Amino acid sequence: MRVTSKGQVTIPIEIREALGILPETELKFSVRGEEGVFNIVPPRNGRLSRGERLVALLANSATDRQFTTDEILSMTRGDD
Fold first, then answer.
1. Do residues 16 and 29 make contact, with C-beta atoms less than 8 angstroms apart?
2. Domain residue extents for the chain
């Protein structure tokens, strides 16, 4: 893993998934001996679960298009 000229690194997906790191997750970096380590910083109002963070990430991401009941049933049944 390399640091970019802007000081950025990419955390591998396997690590992000294992630790529940999503966009907007705050991390704290520190030095322990000769190693750099990071910790996930919990939100001020208490740590959200991974599911709560996923819901927060997806909130208001749907389209403005409203479907009728018949359209929804057609989509779920696979009607063309």
1. no
2. 13-77
- Long-range contact set of residues 23-31: C-beta below 8 Å, sequence gap at least 24: 23/57, 24/53, 24/56, 24/57, 25/53
C-alpha 20/C-alpha 41 separation (Å) is 12
How does pLDDT run along the chain (80 residues), one tens digit per residue?
789 999 998 989 898 888 888 888 888 888 988 988 888 877 666 667 777 777 777 766 666 677 888 888 888 887 66
DSSP annotation string for 33-47: TTEEEEEEEPPTT-P
Q: What is the pTM of this model?
A: 0.47
